[in-house]
Input
Amino acid sequence: MDLSATARVILGMVRLGRQTGYEIKQLVDVSTRFFWAASYGQIYPELRRLEEHGLIEGDEPVAGDGRQRRPVRLTEAGERALAEWLRSGDEPGYELRDEGMLKLFFSDAMEPEERLGLVRAMHDGHEQAAARLRGIEDAARARGGGPYMTLRYGLAFHDFCAGWLAGLERELESALAERR
Amino acid sequence: MDLSATARVILGMVRLGRQTGYEIKQLVDVSTRFFWAASYGQIYPELRRLEEHGLIEGDEPVAGDGRQRRPVRLTEAGERALAEWLRSGDEPGYELRDEGMLKLFFSDAMEPEERLGLVRAMHDGHEQAAARLRGIEDAARARGGGPYMTLRYGLAFHDFCAGWLAGLERELESALAERR
DNA sequence: CTTTGCATGTAAACCGTTACATGATTTT
DNA sequence: AAAATCATGTAACGGTTTACATGCAAAG
Output
């Protein structure tokens, strides 16, 4: 049985204690979103598929207990499937789509000032991403483990990009100044 | 008229002198692939659409001149559309899919040795990416401009990731050693 | 009593990869 | 003569986003 990427995220999130599609989406949006996003349109259908295949199970929603939520948990098969993926040694996929870099690649068609503006915008984007991560740093440190490692990594990474782009800005600025 | 992402890549590549779908794909695969990939399945249909909209134009393939290639060039409208996109100040999209980070996020379900293996695999991936970029560094430096900037950025970026992950390895190794 | 948040879901549209088909030309 | 490379393209599939629809509960 091979799992889709979304299925793996769900299995992992359920193992971390998230019980509903809504809760999974919440956590994705403040954590893995930075390196792995998922939408409701993927989550709910995948939850159903996982249950059909016996990797998760949920009780019938208790009538009249208020919210119509349908909490699920991992089955043994689900736990095994998750572990199998985590252990599988095939080189993990990596894919980046960075429109700023694409523009920078083609930026010989821009005015020097515009190129500088682009680099500043990219810089800003990484600055903001780092700030958002810093906002949840204390909470993540308290919990520790894998989630905290990825947060530290993401933070270091965005800080690095911001710094490198700041250097490029200085380069472009002095080239601009010299031109006069 | 708004362009798809693929359309913008094509326009940019044609402006850089690439004349056929094949040539565009070639260049994408050794340059923008690292932050923006494109496949034949996107390129050829998009070439047709761009020509229908008058952003590029091509002569009829000269019969009997050998290869059945159909070289295109930018029209004025195409040049304008490209410039418009490059100048547009809306914050450029950024999206990452990093399966290694996803595994790391869930790695509390792994044995410490397995987690270390994962980090080493990620480290290795960035090392290899950096090596591939280094292989085209001299050629890119000679041409300079935007393409060279993105290459330097990509190189710095993968080197940084490799270095950070090496640090995490040391952390995990000493935690492993202490456990005994 | 109205807005915000919890909660679940679907349909359409869009994007992108993969695999395949075809055939000419160049190199070995 | 065979293999590699140049060159163009399509069909099927699968993944992803977006927009929409629904309704209850809590808070203001």
